[in-house]
Amino acid sequence: MNLKNYTSTVPVERSVAQIERRLVAHGAHDILKIYEEKKLTGVAFIATIDGQKIPFRIPARVENVRKAMVSSLKKPRKGSVERATDQAERTAWKILADWVDIQMSMLELDQAKFMEVFLPYVYDHDKKRTFFERMESSGFKNLLIYTGG
Q1: Could you give the C-alpha distances from 117 to 58, 86, 87, 104, 125, in angstroms and in order?
Q2: By percentage, how much of the chain surpasses pLDDT 90?
Q3: Which residues contact 13 (CB under 8 A, 6 or more apart)?
């Protein structure tokens, strides 16, 4: 498997702290951690864009990472699935921390704007879904589609 941070030893708490520091440095506030069934699943925050307070929610899809790690085991040994589960958490959060770090570097170098990189994660509290999830559920019908013309 060619997965970034596949063997990361960075504790989840340190990756989350790195995410928070980078977000705060770029004006994010009201940062909170999202837990589901006692597991940390994401980070939510507010960013003020052009005078508007916009909510964002960034997920760490630990279960998807765990499934990929378990499926890559050629001959699962005793305890390897449990170790993969623990590793998946560290890996998922480290990848997310790296991603946020890269996005913030893009902002600092004027290669992108805040909304340009975080738009998919704009969060609708009433409907409990991100902008991306809304677009996905509609089959991306409201997007501009290239027709080859």
Answers
A1: 12, 29, 27, 9, 20
A2: 68
A3: none
Asked whether residue 55 carries a pLDDT value surpassing 90, the answer given is yes
Q: Classify residue 130 by burial, with Cβ atoms within 10 Å: 0-12, 13-18, 19+.
A: buried
Residues ≥6 apart with Cβ < 8 Å to 131: 119, 120, 121, 122, 123, 124
CB 143 within 8 A of CB 136: no
Residue type, 98: D
Whole-angstrom Cα distance, residue 73 to residue 100?
29
52: which strand partners? 49
CB 34 within 8 A of CB 42: yes
pLDDT tens per residue across span 88-105: 999 999 999 999 999 999
Helix and strand numbers (H, E) in the chain are 5, 5
Is the distance from CB of 88 to CB of 7 less than 8 angstroms?
no
| Separation CA 55–CA 52 (nearest Å) | 10
**pLDDT of res. 98:** 96
Q: And the tokens for 132?
A: 């991306």
